[in-house]
Amino acid sequence: MGVQENGSGGDNGMSSVPLGAKNKYRRMDSELNDYSDDDLEVAPYKQTQQERTKSTRKYVFACAVFASLNNVLLGYDVGVMSGAIIFIQEDLKITEFQEEILVGILSVISLLGSLGGGRASDALGRKWTMGIAAIIFQIGALIMTLAPSFQVLMMGRLLAGIGIGFGVMIAPVYIAEISPTISRGSFTSFPEIFINIGILLGYVSNYAFSGFSSHINWRIMLAVGILPSVFIAFALFIIPESPRWLVMQNRVDEARSVLMKTNEIEAEVEERLSEILKAAGIGTGAGTGENQEEKAVWRELLNPSPALRRMLITGFGIQCFQQITGIDATVYYSPEILQTAGIEEKSRLLAATVAVGIAKTLFILVAIMLIDRIGRKPLLYVSTIGMTVCLCGLAISLSLFKGTTLGVELAILSICGNVAFFSIGIGPVCWVLTSEIFPLRLRAQASALGAVGNRVCSGVVAMSFLSVSRAISMAGTFLIFTILSFLSVGFVYKLVPETKGKSLEQIELLFQKDRNWNEEEVELSDTQQLVKNEGN
Fold first, then answer.
1. Which PROSITE patterns match (predicted)?
2. Coil, strand or helix at 5
3. What is the rounded distance in angstroms from the CA atom of residue 236 to the CA atom of residue 326?
4. How many CA within 13 A on the CB side of residue 177?
5. What angle do CA 408, 334, 92 make, to 5 degrees?
6. What is the mean pLDDT of residues 372-383?
7. CB atoms within 10 A of CB 249
């Protein structure tokens, strides 16, 4: 191969391959000079941006954790009551009907908390509403712990239900409003994670304290639930107020300050702020006073536009399907279900419920890792189809194999599978969707309505499960849950859009168009742009 000597420096023995910008055979000294000119200017910016991204994610993560602490209270109550009720029956001599009322009334009464929470969060702010929720629950839990009779126990249960209703409704809304678009799904799933942690702690508490006398053990189990409220009081002095609520109060500078802390890319703060201002109607002449605005909100919810009607059907429907497929029956009454399957000893029953709690908690972590990667809708498909199969398996184990070793094993596997599939999809995604899809001016109140539907369905299931099971058998009851779970698959297919990678304001625009969700190609422009920015 003929190689010419370098005309300007032939004495160095280098070949005269042209060193133009388009030639891939570049001299090392030239390459070093090129990088030193351009990259040295960009490097400090990149380093600063990386540090900002890391700091922002830690900050939002901490806010999401603290905001979710109220949900530990709900989860703990659900888990602990499944075992405590066994000893409450022995101590207070309550009937089966009273047992159903005691277990289920918390879900029904929490709807009052959810409705009140929507109004309180609009008036007082998102974070202080969470504080009120913790105080009310603490009072209720203390009354239950010291209750000498069923009537006093019910009074404490009612107060605890109101507190839980406040907390469950507001946490997803708050987290959705402070989270960056790219990670909103993961962070908004935190409340469901903490519900599952609470359930697991409740099951462990049942097992740990079951050795005490029946007059003492259930009181200790309920008293332990007060502890998370102490951390909530501490959290209120750390977490910021929602920037979207601050905008609605015309505190725009404070909202900008919060957005500076919660957005990874500083340049996007003003863009996000302008979107929030537009969504809130600030500067457009919308709204002439707080009372008039509140009336307008409820008037719009009761007489919705076609777009809002689609939002309400999606949000309210997914909340109801989350509960009418029987998850609370499985969690509250797992000892009774396993007893029907063939397990008799109390310690074995409570130990088996711990396995259920572990399965439920572990799989919520899978959902957190996947929800912003593969989207909300694929997780819903996996969840609803898997739950349908497991509920059918549980019905079979309680009918064809009842009282056999195979029946017990199939029942435990089906219950664990059911709660696992619930946790991987409809459990967390339900709350993510209802906190995402509604317009800013309606978000708190509309989310409260969704939470009301969720709590009513939960209460109906919890308060009727034993009676219906006695009437048509436990296997028949789970066959009904199987059919309802199958219907939820169709609901997801027809009426739930994909919201991954879209800002809250962009999601609102989705419902402005009458489109078929399953034919829509998912828009990932926000995600792709952020990935591109990080790659650059």
1. MFS, SUGAR_TRANSPORT_1, SUGAR_TRANSPORT_2
2. strand
3. 34
4. 33
5. 125
6. 90
7. 15
